[in-house]
């Protein structure tokens, strides 16, 4: 019988091999120092630990939230301080010099004055507790222009009368304010959508609410509310028309000069590109900037129309200066600025096409590029003078405009005599040079007042 620890057969003389674990590499396999997936799996927290963290993890997250709270408070305080700084700067500008801030401050003070006068008059003449209709209407009717105050005042007064009459009559017939509200309010909302009411259409519905909510419905109370509204409308219109009536001359001037200065700056940049060499990316950037010029033309059109409306029924019409010279109309200025912007956009596209001629001779030879750049700069100076002239109507600026147009036209004539078509590299270059000179001459013709 074999003894313990021995075995019969060939394995008796060989040492017993221990069982190889899965974690150890075999001799015939290369060692891999990277951790195995099952090891990584053991190190990861279990799903129940992720979704249900223990007390320590919850405590750590609480510390993180408490630590981030002061940062949120500091951010909010910084935003508040920044807004306060902007408000303080606007107040300083309103006090120191004329501008948009001073106009807004004056309009706000006029609204407060109109509301105070309407409240005192309505409280003195009527006993209705809702005599607040007077100051409410007065505040609304201190509009941006005197003409707007009058037109909106008429619409709002008619809307208040219709809403109050409908609500009062229905409540007296039905004998119930709740039933009258359910019946009249939808009809008032539909009626307010009529085009004739404009922005005051909602007043029909609010008038029905004022008439049916808060106090008993009687003919006397409804009549007092309508009377308070009429007083508020008269006070709002009178205050806006007599106390510093609004005039938007400054906004129109700023819009015109912004458009002409932008066109002149674009022409200067194109002139620099012709002299220093046209870069494709830079030319594409200039073209994208020039594509924003139509928006400036629309701003000019809107500002001039707004200034023209502000003169209607304005007692300051004769005491304030005119925006445009006597020989210019609003249509003339808008047409000229539009033509300048459109032609400048065409010039940027021409310069961009010139930059895309990679690997070939430049479309504009060096001996001609300086002359073309000089013509663009002279046109830019003339456009700047035009913007200052039509917004200032000064004789000195008119001489600058005439001299600028003359220099630009003379330079173009001189350049046309120097152009040698045989020196142009190819037909593609000729297609670039020709429109460049033609658009530059079109700019000068748009400014020529002779």
TrEMBL record:
Residue spans of biased composition, Basic and acidic residues class: 10-36
Localisation per UniProt entry: Cell membrane
Any single GO CC term annotated in Swiss-Prot or TrEMBL for this entry: plasma membrane
Chain intervals for the UniProt region annotation (Disordered): 1-71
Principal subcellular localisation of the protein: membrane
A Pfam family matched in the record: ArAE_1
Membrane topology, record value: Multi-pass membrane protein
InterPro entries in the record: ArAE_1
TM regions (residue ranges): 112-138, 158-185, 197-219, 225-243
Keyword tags: Cell membrane, Membrane, Transmembrane, Transmembrane helix
Annotated protein name in UniProt: FUSC family protein
Gene source species: Streptomyces tardus
